[in-house]
Every structure is written in structure tokens, then in C-alpha cells.
Amino acid sequence: MRSVTPDDIRREHDAAIASLTSDQRHSLWRQRHARQMMNFNGLSERQNLEVLFEREAAQRNADAELLDAETRERQANDNAVLGRQSAGGAGS
Questions:
Q1: Residues 3-13: pLDDT tens digits?
Q2: How many CB atoms are closer than 10 A to CB 44?
Q3: CA-based Rg of the chain, rounded to a whole angstrom?
Q4: Assigned domain for 34 exists
Q5: Which of 37, 68, 71, 85 could form a disulfide with 48 if both were Cys (CB 3.0 to 4.6 A apart)?
Q6: How confident is residue 89, by pLDDT bands cut at 50, 70 and 90?
Q7: How many domains does the chain have?
Q8: What is the mean pLDDT of residues 33-44?
Q9: 8 within domain boundaries
Q10: What is the pTM of this model?
């Protein structure tokens, strides 16, 4: 019978990590971060997760608003260019 080596465990670990989706990796990061926060703020892991959820939601909403503003600005600029081109073409 063959003994299990640390390299066997390492390969198993690496394969499991490699198979995670980005959402699963981010969930693990949140969980680890919430546990680390417990050492500094005295809140439970669950309470810290709630704080992380609120922060992430606020950040995602801010990012979406910024993206929407940039998209609106780009569309306005495109429309202005098209308007100038149409006006220039109408006079020719």
C-alpha cells in the first residue's frame, strides 16, 4: 500500500482551487476576511459578512453609476459628432 505524501495533498489542493469559479473564489475571500475582521472589531463572523455585503453592494452601485455616466457622456459626444456631420453634409 502506498503512503500519501504532502505532494499528493498539495496536488489535490491545487486542483480543487483551480476548479473554483471566480464567484466561488470571491466568496471564500469574503469568508476569510470576515474571520480576520473578528480579531479587530469584536463582531461575529456573520456580522462582519453583513458589513462586507453592504460595502460591496455600495461599491458595485457606485461603479454602475460611474459607468452609466461615462456611457451617457460618450453617447452625447457621439451624437454631437453625428449632428455636426449631418449639418455639414446637408449644406453640401
A1: 999 999 999 99
A2: 12
A3: 26
A4: yes
A5: 37
A6: low
A7: 1
A8: 97
A9: no
A10: 0.67
Going from the C-alpha of 6 to that of each of 2, 12, 26, 37, 92, the distances in angstroms are 13, 10, 27, 31, 79
AA letter at 11? R
Range of the domain at 67: 21-90
Could you report the per-residue pLDDT of 43-62, keeping only the tens digit for each?
A: 999 999 999 999 999 999 99
CA dist 15 and 4 (Å) reads 16
Can you tell me the distance from the alpha carbon of 4 to that of 7, in angstroms, rounded to the nearest whole number?
A: 8
Q: Which residue type sits at 76?
A: A
Read off the pLDDT of each residue in 32-48 and give the average, rounded to a whole number: 97
Kind and range of the H or E run holding 10: helix 6-18
The identity of residue 15, as a single letter, is A
Grid coordinates of 49: 459578512
